[in-house]
Write a structure and sequence with these properties.
heterodimer, A: alpha/beta, four-stranded parallel sheet, 13 helices, B: alpha/beta
Chain lengths: 244, 472
């Protein structure tokens, strides 16, 4: 299967290793990975800031870059959710584009959903010694239905044991520009997430969205927690966590 | 009520620094109404509850689509049964109508059951100024009236107060030894309220729904105070929003199943009271005069707009019970009558976009509210629409507008974007230093590093590394 990889702007800038881990996993599943070289951002920052025009312009760009792919996969529930659930809404008043956008939206997958449900990966390349807890990122969970998929895949990682934290579906307080506009409130919400995951005694918190990752890691370190690792699920599954 | 929503940020800051409030909110968050709702939904069955939510949304949409005829029908039926139906364009007009009723009947003391609309209208202050003593009889409302505060939650108005704070209030107000046993405290409040119930000549209630086919108002309560407010005094005024009219009693039953489960996790509330006109010739109980005041207060402005779905709201409070922001800062930070996600949509809609600039942005868009809303209001979508309206009306700060535009322009030009990101990755990597994290970001980023470190990027972008790998 020819997979278009939507790397996401945050992975591009902050954690390229997650992009490469994603490629490893897709290739391990027997997919041919195509990375459109001109891709930048899905437009979510503009969309959530009330700038519909900017969001539409970027959506058209993503559409042009990916509509030739059999499927679009992103290592992020949030960016995948933007394309799958919000692009159609952005083009509801332009019938020609709407049809194209909806056809693309139907082929958009969050990484773990794609691995578990579409290609049904049964052996993962990675191994991990230790206990992890999984944070359900909001968009992945509530827009893309990502809940059992990462857990099923993590269960295949040799050496890894999963322990659930209380309120694992509770928002970490990131919320895009919310985290900057309301830094104090956002940090206080992140604090509760940190308390919940620390209470599990896990060596690492694993999750599927970079925004939440930066938020939780940033707050953990500021609280003085140097020990708990914050890992993207792709890196754990690919076995590249902390290696690249 | 005066609008303080422009100051959300500073009010939220004060709330975060208030240790007592934080302890009370923590308690509310962990063992509060959200957990009770979850149990009730479990018991009802998730699939069945989903169908009920669909039915609830359908009833509310059908009612709103037909609102004008439903209101006329309600007015006709209520009038036929002896009630007087009045309309107010604003909260101020509603307040004036109540004061006029007080003058006409020579009323001196009002017992009230919970009404958020009376908060919109600032009714208590106006009554007191006109020489009519207002007494809140819902226990939570009674507590905050004693404290001289506003409700911080639409169904649990005193949720921001601890038992100890209430014990102090009661000891002062009741001039009795301080008690900390909740049943004893409740009994003491009931005794204090009892004298007011029998001496009041006006009862003011809200209305959860108005039923068009019978011209009735209906309220749900747990303390029984609503029943006394609507039956004991010689005049009863029901004051509620114009959007609360539904077609039939059957519809009421369906919405009730949703309302109590979503609000407090109860299959049904302790009391459900219907009031249909004043006391009849053969009735032993009931008011001699019965008024309905239907208040617009900005509601009809939403009809036919992309925010109409907000009018489905049945005021259960589930959205705030599940909101990470509400649970962290409490209701007072929102600065007006309605807090949480529903308040963040309603406040700018009712008092003006320019008077509540922060509220549509004071949300992480996590959609926890949307998935628990009993009538399926897509709250994050509505918040986003309000953000768009702010942009369209030029209400956002210029720095934010320039920032978004600049980012969008760059993201549309991949070559320029790549150069920008290439430099940003290196610059931030250097700022990250030995620990590979940034403790103080410049400009807008300072909001982030106020409470968190910023993990530094790896230093090279994925695109640069991937291109290199491709070249081999």
């Amino acid at each position: 299967m020819r997979v278009g990889l939507f790397v996401t702007c945050l992975v591009d800038l902050m954690r390229p290793s997650i992009g490469f881990a994603t490629i490893d996993l897709l290739e391990a599943a027997g997919c041919e990975v195509y990375v459109p070289p001109t891709q930048t951002c899905c437009g979510q920052p503009g969309y959530n800031s009330g700038d519909r025009q900017a969001a539409r312009a970027l959506a058209e760009k993503v559409l042009a870059e990916f509509e030739g792919c059999e499927v679009l996969v992103a290592p992020s529930g949030s960016c995948a959710g933007m394309i799958k659930t919000h692009y159609p809404e952005l083009f509801q008043d332009s019938p020609s584009l709407r049809g194209r956008v909806e056809r693309l939206a139907g082929r958009v997958y969050e990484l773990t959903d794609f691995l578990a449900n579409v290609v049904q990966l049964d052996k993962v390349p990675g191994e991990f010694r230790g206990r992890v807890t999984y944070h359900d990122s909001c968009a992945g969970l509530r827009e893309m239905g990502v809940k059992a998929q990462p857990r099923a895949l993590l269960a295949k990682v040799p050496g890894l044991s999963l322990v659930e934290m209380s309120e694992c579906e509770q928002c970490c307080g990131f919320g895009g520009t919310f985290s900057i506009k309301f830094g104090a409130v956002s940090g206080a919400i992140a604090d509760r997430k940190c308390e919940a995951l620390e209470a599990t005694g896990a060596d690492a918190v694993v999750l599927g969205d970079l925004g939440c990752m930066l938020n939780i890691e940033g707050r953990l370190r500021r609280r003085g927690n140097e020990a708990t690792r914050v890992l993207h699920v792709a890196e754990v599954l690919a076995g590249t966590a902390g290696k690249r | 009520m005066q609008v303080h929503s422009m100051h959300f940020k500073s009010r939220a800051g004060i709330a975060l620094g208030d240790a007592t409030l934080q302890a009370n909110l923590q308690k509310f968050g962990s063992a509060g109404l959200a957990a009770l709702r979850a149990k009730a939904v479990e018991a009802y069955g998730h699939a069945a509850f989903e169908r009920l939510r669909d039915a609830g949304a359908e009833i509310r949409d059908r009612s709103l689509a037909d609102l004008d005829t439903l209101i006329e029908r309600f007015e006709r039926e209520a009038t036929r049964r002896g009630a007087t139906v009045l309309f107010a364009r604003t909260g101020d007009e509603a307040r004036d109508l109540v004061l006029e009723i007080c003058r006409r009947h020579g009323l001196k003391k009002a017992v009230k059951s919970k009404s958020m609309l009376s908060e919109e209208a600032g009714l208590n202050e106006a009554l007191a100024a006109a020489g009519v003593m207002p007494v809140e009889t819902d226990l939570g409302e009674y507590i905050i009236q004693l404290a001289g505060e506003a409700p911080s939650h639409i169904i649990a108005p005193a949720v921001h107060k601890s038992k100890d704070e209430v014990a102090d209030l009661f000891a002062r107000a009741h001039a009795k030894p301080r008690k900390t046993d909740i049943p004893e405290m409740t009994r003491e409040a009931r005794e204090a309220l009892r004298t007011h119930f029998v001496s009041a000549d006006l009862g003011i209630s809200g209305g959860n729904f108005l039923v068009a086919e019978t011209g009735s108002g209906g309220i749900v309560t747990n303390e029984g105070n609503g029943r006394m407010v609507t039956t004991l005094p010689r005049v009863h005024v029901c004051i509620t929003g114009i959007e609360k009219v539904i077609p039939t009693l059957e519809d009421f039953a369906a919405l009730l199943r949703l309302l109590t489960r979503s609000a407090t996790g109860q299959p049904i509330s302790n009391y459900i009271s219907f009031f249909t006109g004043p006391k009849g010739r053969d009735d032993r109980d009931g008011p001699e005069h019965m008024y309905f005041i239907l208040v617009d207060g900005g509601r009809t402005n939403l009809v036919g707009t992309d925010l109409q779905e907000m009018l489905r709201c049945i005021r259960c409070g589930a959205c705030m019970n599940h909101c990470p922001v509400y649970k962290t800062v409490g209701g007072h930070a929102y600065g007006w009558v309605y807090p949480g996600p529903m308040g963040a949509v309603l406040t700018p809609s009712y008092v003006g976009l320019e008077n509540a600039l922060d509220l549509p942005h004071a949300a992480t868009l996590c959609n926890q509210c949307g998935v628990v809303c009993p009538v399926k209001i897509p709250l994050p979508d509505l918040l986003r629409k309000l953000r768009e309206k702010q942009v369209d009306r030029g209400l956002r700060p210029w720095s934010e507008r320039v920032g978004v535009r600049l980012w969008a322009w760059a993201a549309l030009h991949p070559r320029i974007y790549a150069i920008g990101v290439w430099w940003a990755a290196r610059f931030l990597r250097v700022l990250g230093g030995r620990l590979n994290r940034i403790t103080k970001l410049p400009l807008a980023g300072s909001g982030w590093t106020l409470t968190r470190d910023f993990p530094a990027p790896a230093g090279k972008t994925f695109r640069a590394l991937y291109a290199k790998r491709k070249r081999g």
